[in-house]
Amino acid sequence: MGTIRRAFLYVTRKKGKSVLLFFILLIMATFVLTGLSAREASREAQKNLREALGGEFQVAVNLSESNPYFRKDEDGAGNVELYTELPVTQEVIDAVMGIGGMKYYHASTQTLVSTNLTIFPGNVPLKGDMNNKIYARTVSGTENSSFFQSGIMELAEGEHITENVRNGAVISKAMADQNSLKLGDTISLQADEAVKVKIIGIYEILKPDPAFASIVTYEKLENQIFIDMGTLQDLFGNVPSGFYDVTFTVEDPAELEEIISQVNDLSSIDWRAFTVTTNNQTYLDAAAPLQKLQTLVSSMIFVIAWVSGIILSLILTMWGRGRVHETGVFLSLGIGKTQIIGQYLAEVLMIAALAFGCSYFTSSAAADQIANELLGQNYPAGEEQTAGVTITQKDGFSEDVAVSIKDDPILADMAFGQDTGSETEALEDGAKADTEQISVAVDFYNMLELYLIGTMIIILSVGVSSLSVMRLRPREILSKMS
Questions:
Q1: CA neighbours closer than 13 Å in the CB half-sphere of residue 68
Q2: Strand bridging mode 102-115 / 134-139
Q3: What is the DSSP letter of 439?
Q4: DSSP class per residue in 104-149
Q5: How many beta carbons lie within 10 A of that of residue 313, not counting itself?
């Protein structure tokens, strides 16, 4: 009679032991499989989170004496202008975007211009004609602008500015209504040169300026006009155009350090003129619960497997001692110890195959609830810090690139690495939603892992439990039988 047949007959004859062993293996498999599926879900959630949030780094003009293109001018009235003769040009942007793993970029700068429109006055008076100037914000694309990404503004009509737009503008609905403007109308902007631009989009302000805030005219959200790079070039004639800073987003934040290393190695860029700053904190904060979950689940799987192996070894050892007579008979019939151990192993594996299959249903029922319990934790609210001195880039190109340091607070295009309260709140809510909505499902690969882990545990347990009997010689076993 073959080993497999003897194992099958024993399992069917010893129904009580078989049922007990089935439930032991089922419980073990349920915990292991739940842990495996939860770990896989956390890995998938981290991947989705990386794709959703991305990682950011900024290439900005280096406004320090170490930059050979840096210039500093004082006008005698207490105002200081910091500017560079080498801004971040499109050539620099293209070189960085040529590196693998890049997702998209956003560049912006603001320029004080005059206009033929009736504007909204601020409540902080300024000297000269500054009360009649507004910001023309040059962007690589309004859709990725921090104003629109953070939910301060929303495009209501028309289309966003893109790299393909030339002499287009996006203005506020309040500005359009006050001046009886609509899509397709043209407005005039004046800097060194006068330029006519076509209104291609109108935005609504979702989060207005605070009611009692001190705001100068060009800071008011209603007065912000978004323009393209071509328009900026036309406003200042033949002066080479560029940006004060550019924010780049990578596809996978986990690769951010490697990508920045490749950026710093670009020989076509004079890095004396620029600085590179990383911003990966949003992803790190959002991914922290998932990383903790993955570590916790991995530890849980290890402990469950270890404890299961010990329990199974003890049970099989106790049962093995009651099979001394059977073992002695097998030995007297010339059946080797290897075949006997093979039979014991086959018996447990037969029951395990059924128990592991049934664990699919028990694990699926428990997985979601267990994962939600593991994810139940508090998220610390973001904290903001504001600098004591406000530095605002005035123009983003050539010798006219300037950063004015004034006593009046100025609303620059939101600083890289410092989210507004609404933006921070939105990112935290999104991160919390991403982690709280993890769906834990048992798949084929989880089942395959379970069978591999379970088989290893069973082999070790059967081996350990058989030592007490198999190390005896046949004569010793027969003497114990008597």
A1: 3
A2: antiparallel
A3: -
A4: EEEEEEEEEEEESS-----SS--SGGGGG-EEEEEES-GGGSHHHH
A5: 20
Strands 134-139 and 225-227: parallel
SS3 labels along 164-184: CCCCEEEEEHHHHHHCCCCCC
205 contacts 109 by C-beta, under 8 angstroms: no
pLDDT score of 90 more than 60: yes
Q: Which of 382, 390, 384, 386 is nearest to 407 (CA)?
A: 390
Q: Give the C-alpha distances (Å, rounded to integers) separating 425 from 53, 75, 282, 387, 415.
A: 14, 41, 11, 20, 16
Element (H, E) at 325: helix 324-332
SS3 breakdown of the chain: % helix, strand, coil, rounded to 5?
Answer: 50, 20, 30
Task: Taking each helix axis as running N to C, give the angle between helix 444-470 and helix 15-53, from 0 to 180 degrees, rounded to the nearest 10.
Answer: 140
3-state class (DSSP) for residue 402: strand
Bridge partners (DSSP) of residue 83 are: 71
Dump pLDDT digits (tens) for 264-302: 999 889 998 898 888 766 666 666 766 777 788 788 888
Supply the pLDDT for residue 225.
Answer: 95
| Distance between CA atoms of residues 169 and 465, nearest Å | 80
Per-residue CA distances from 150 to 32, 111, 145, 147, 421 (Å): 42, 22, 8, 6, 9
421 — alpha (psi -120 to 50), left (phi > 0) or beta?
alpha
Whether the full predicted model's pTM is greater than 0.85, yes or no, is no
> Three-state DSSP class for 46?
helix
- Return the SS3 of 247: strand
188 - beta bridge partners?
Answer: 196
Whole-angstrom Cα Rg for the chain = 35
User: Which residues fall within 8 angstroms of residue 175, CB to CB, at 6 or more apart?
Assistant: 117, 119, 120, 181, 222, 223, 225
Residue type, 294: Q
Does 387 have pLDDT greater than 80? no
Instruction: Look at strands 402-405 and 391-395 and give their pairing.
Output: antiparallel
DSSP 8-state symbol, 332: H
